[in-house]
């Protein structure tokens, strides 16, 4: 059984390395265990917890959901801000650090459990045509840890309490790169009926890991108070 686990861990690591190579990202050998734990939900001992929200309204056109308006309660998130040469590199390196935090590199000394989505706070220029290289990757702490968040061993990871928020969300599939994100951003802007939104930052929510071939993603706008 141990040999099978090692073989599976090696295959998963190689799969991630192959996917990351396209973004010029190196996946180190010590990522094999976190990748296997998260992929297998800690050998089936955990389930993936969705970030809770209340649906306020949904706008559709010809059977297509243009966007949803949701309410998210205040909650603790583990966050890390990364500044690499490209958006994809920043997300990959940030997510690997978050994965290590989830997989025992925390003061609880245990596997915390995966929550979805993993979100990245992205900033643009005033015309929304260029993404900033600096992105914040954030992980919603599972319900058992919300009241007493474990401390990260990595000093670059911060535990933040995000306030309650109204979010406008639009779903999309496929790769998340600068071109696709800016396209989806424009689509959400066109679909919205001009609510009071922040124009310089937004959130990309990923429901599948960055190495997945077919990804489920969302663009989020936060309504300003």
TrEMBL record:
InterPro entries: Reg_factor_effector_dom_sf, SOUL_heme-bd
Transmembrane segments: none
A Pfam family recorded for this sequence: SOUL
Top-rank taxon: Eukaryota
Molecular function terms from GO: heme binding
Signal sequence coordinates: none
Family designation: Belongs to the HEBP family.
Protein name: Zgc:153411
UniProt organism field: Danio rerio
């Amino acid at each position: 059984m141990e040999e099978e686990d090692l073989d599976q861990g090696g295959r998963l690591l190689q799969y991630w390395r192959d996917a990351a190579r396209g973004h010029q990202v190196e996946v180190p050998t010590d990522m094999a265990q976190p990748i296997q734990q998260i992929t297998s939900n800690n050998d089936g001992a955990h389930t993936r917890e969705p970030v809770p929200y209340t649906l306020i309204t949904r706008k559709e056109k010809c059977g297509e959901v243009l966007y949803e308006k949701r309410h998210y309660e205040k909650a603790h998130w583990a966050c890390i801000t990364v500044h690499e040469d490209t958006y994809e590199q920043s997300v990959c390196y940030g997510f690997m650090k978050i994965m290590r935090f989830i997989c025992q590199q925390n003061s609880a000394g245990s596997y915390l459990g995966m929550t979805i989505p993993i979100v990245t706070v992205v900033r643009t220029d005033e015309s929304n045509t260029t993404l900033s290289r600096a992105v914040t990757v954030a992980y919603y702490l599972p319900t058992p840890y919300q009241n007493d968040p474990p401390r990260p061993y990595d000093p670059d990871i911060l535990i933040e309490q995000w306030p309650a928020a109204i979010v406008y969300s639009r779903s999309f599939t496929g790769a998340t790169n600068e071109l696709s994100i800016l396209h989806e951003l424009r689509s959400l802007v066109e679909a919205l009926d001009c609510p009071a939104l922040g124009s310089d930052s937004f959130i990309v929510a990923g429901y599948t890991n960055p190495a997945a071939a077919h990804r489920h993603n969302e663009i989020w706008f936060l309504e300003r108070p």
